[in-house]
Amino acid sequence: MYQVSLSEDAQRAFEKAQAPLQRRLDRCFALLAAEPRQHPNIRRLKGELAAYHRYRVGDWRVLYRIDEVQKIVWVAAIEHRREAYR
């Protein structure tokens, strides 16, 4: 089991999100805590962001890194798909 930790930016985005999106993000965080690599909505990023994975939540993207030593999933950003990869 992993611990899910949100960056300040990700926390702000979560708090600003509407209630239905917050519920979907909560389910996403629960899945990431259980297994941060095994889900159809998870993809490893390429290029400069190769250390990150993304989880697709509708039109939103949760960008995160995995620390295997400390068993932490560090969520760097929660952004709309048009902004996520810039």
Q: What is the highest CATH level, the class?
A: Alpha Beta
- Relative helix content: 25-40%
Question: What is the H/E order?
Answer: EHHEEEEH
Computed over alpha carbons, the radius of gyration is: 12 Å
Query: Which spans of ≥5 residues are poorly predicted at pLDDT below 50?
Result: none
- Average pLDDT confidence is 94
Quote the CATH topology.
Answer: YaeB-like fold
Number of strands: 5
Question: Roughly how many Å apart are the termini?
Answer: 31 Å
Give the overall shape, derived from the CA principal axes. globular
**Which structural class best describes the helix and strand composition?**
alpha+beta
Count of domains: 1
Total number of helices: 3
| Shape-level CATH architecture | 2-Layer Sandwich
Give a short account of the largest sheet. Answer: 5 strands, mixed
**Mind telling me the CATH superfamily name?**
RelE-like
Describe this structure in words.
- The chain has helices at about 10-15, 20-35, 80-85, and strands at about 5, 40-45, 55, 60-65, 70-80.
- The protein has about 90 residues and is α+β, with helices and mostly antiparallel strands.
- It has one domain: RelE-like (YaeB-like fold), CATH 3.30.2310.
- The relative contact order is 0.24.
- The model has no long low-confidence stretch (mean pLDDT about 95).
List keywords for this structure.
YaeB-like fold, 5 strands, globular, 5-stranded mixed beta sheet, single chain, about 90 residues
